[in-house]
Design goal:
alpha/beta, Aldehyde Dehydrogenase, Chain A, domain 1, Aldehyde Dehydrogenase, Chain A, domain 2, 18 helices, 2 domains, 6-stranded mixed β-sheet, 7-stranded mixed β-sheet, about 525 residues
Length: about 525
């Protein structure tokens, strides 16, 4: 396995990335290589004054960018799309170093940005053009829908998919004509900064896309004081704070929050396929995926077979710190997060759960490594039973009937993602429609729904508000302006006509409106 840090990640290269971050506090964050704990670069920390200046700079540039034609803006994005693909393995190196994920997962993260960019390059001209519609009076009136950019959008990205969320959420905001102020997590600021560099290399006006860094309590509030819209991905607790601040400032917000996602394996499912998928569902990105699976419900008739095969496959996983494609799973993002995962497992064990495999930290592999872990006997009085663990820990449960499985799946305050497995697609669809979740994948874990860029993806209940992807994923960054035109003043009594006669005439028109194509 290749454990040496990639040669491209030189001190000069990394310092060049963080140079654009304003550091008015005078403090820095020690951004480390997760596999080793070694320092990568000192990341400047921004002050509230830096935040205000970032929004002011972006707002000035947005006046020019927003006036560009959609064709001219998309020309920049087409160049960016090509640059991402040209630099895909460099981006993969950066993601791995700052997050500790295995190379397979880091590479797949880089794929999200060109996929989303390609989708909106094709879809934006239709979505953003003016749409003329009939007005209230046939022929004599019309209404035109005009899409205007919000202004400057705040995007707050998480550490688990820093490039995919930070840049993929930025792209539709830019295409819609906005400026953007991006705040990545301190732990994983490098890959979004590389994305910004590539955008400017593609022709994005300098100043339009600003990056500020700092802890949420220090810069989050100031960001929302200046923003015209906010896109946040992160925990439910922080999402509530963001939502309150957005409401206070009367700006829109899209929030993708936590999940405690279920997998339902029905009696007729292909057990081998379900087990293979469960490995990714539970342990992809070391379990640090908002849409990953933490609760696995398996029908009684196949439970023992599924459990035994899943345990054996999990125990055989290759876990390691490597910059090649060999390991099946990498590290957790930090020692602090590792300790949170340990606390969930220890709490479950103390309250009677059984560890079928895993359950231990692996300091021999690196500071933040933790084994892929399967628990049995998890109950709702355990942290792992109700709270999002966000690590490589899953619980196995039995069910006897379809109704019981659906009730168990819905017995949570979250509703981000679910997975249903069955040989009968129609049956699986029927089950899917009864699950309280913004995304449901049939015979897949999460990729089919999330990678379908033409369809909105978001959470329900405490898993969020709004959605990314689909038409909604771009239009949310715009305000709809309604321009109504009336060619002749006739929406009132004419000449000596009484209002009673006018009212009867209007009533007749309303009856005809439903029966004809005139609106």
């Amino acid at each position: 396995m290749s454990t040496a840090r990639p040669a491209a990640l030189t001190e000069k290269f990394l310092e060049g990335l963080v140079r654009r971050v304003p550091g008015g506090t005078g403090n820095t964050w020690k951004l480390t290589e997760v596999y080793t704990g070694d320092l990568l670069v000192e990341l400047p920390q921004s002050s509230p004054e830096d935040v205000a200046q970032a929004f002011a700079t972006s707002r000035n540039a947005q006046k020019i960018w927003g006036a560009w034609s959609i064709k001219k803006r998309l020309k920049v994005l087409k160049k960016f799309h090509a640059l991402v693909l040209d630099n895909q393995f460099l981006i993969t190196d950066v993601i791995q170093a700052e997050s500790g994920k295995n190379r397979r997962m880091a590479f797949e993260e880089t794929c999200d940005v060109p996929m989303g960019t390609s989708h909106y390059i094709k879809r934006a001209p239709s979505l953003l053009k003016e749409h003329k519609r009939a007005g209230p009076v046939p022929v004599l009136s019309s209404s035109t829908e005009v899409r205007r950019p919000k202004g400057v959008v705040a995007i707050i990205a998480p550490w688990n998919f820093p490039f995919a969320t930070g840049i993929s959420d930025t792209i539709p905001a830019l295409i819609a004509g906005n400026g953007v102020v991006l705040k990545p997590d301190n732990k994983t600021a490098l890959s979004p900064l590389l994305g910004v560099k590539l955008l400017e290399q593609a022709g994005l006006p300098v100043g339009l896309l600003q990056v500020i860094c700092g802890e949420g309590p220090d810069v989050g509030g100031p960001m929302l004081e200046h923003a015209d819209y906010v896109m946040f991905t992160g925990s439910t607790a922080t999402g509530q704070v963001i939502g309150e601040l957005a409401g206070k400032n009367l700006i829109g917000a899209c929030l993708e929050l936590g999940g405690k996602n279920p997998m339902l394996v029905l009696a007729d499912a292909d057990v081998d396929e379900a087990v293979h998928a469960a490995l990714f569902g539970g342990f992809g990105n070391s379990g640090q995926i908002c849409m990953h699976i933490e609760r696995m419900y398996v029908h009684d008739s196949i439970y023992d077979e599924f459990r035994d095969k899943f345990v054996a496959a999990t125990a055989a996983m290759n876990v390691g710190a490597s910059y090649d494609f060999e390991p099946d799973m990498g590290s957790l993002v930090s020692v602090d997060h590792r300790d949170r995962v340990i606390a969930h497992v220890e709490d479950a064990k103390a309250k009677g759960a059984t560890v079928l495999t895993g359950g231990e930290a692996r300091p021999d592999l690196g500071p933040a490594f933790f084994e892929p872990t399967i628990l049995e006997g998890v109950t709702k009085d355990m942290l792992a039973g109700t709270t999002e663990t966000f690590g490589p820990v899953v619980g196995l449960y039995r069910f006897a009937t379809e109704d019981e499985a659906i009730d168990l799946a819905n017995d949570t305050e979250y509703g981000l993602n679910a997975s249903v497995w069955s040989a009968d697609i129609d049956r699986a669809k029927s089950v899917a429609r009864r699950i309280d979740s913004g995304n449901v994948n049939i015979n897949d874990i999460l990729a089919t729904a999330f990678a379908s860029k033409g369809t909105p993806s978001g959470g329900v209940k405490r898993s969020g508000v709004g959605a990314r992807h689909g038409d909604q994923g771009l239009l949310k960054y715009t305000d709809a302006q309604n321009i109504g035109v009336l060619k002749k003043q006739i929406m009132e009594p004419q000449g000596k006509q009484t209002y009673e006669a006018y009212a009867k005439q209007t009533q007749l028109s309303l009856r005809l409106m439903r029966k004809t194509r005139l609106r």
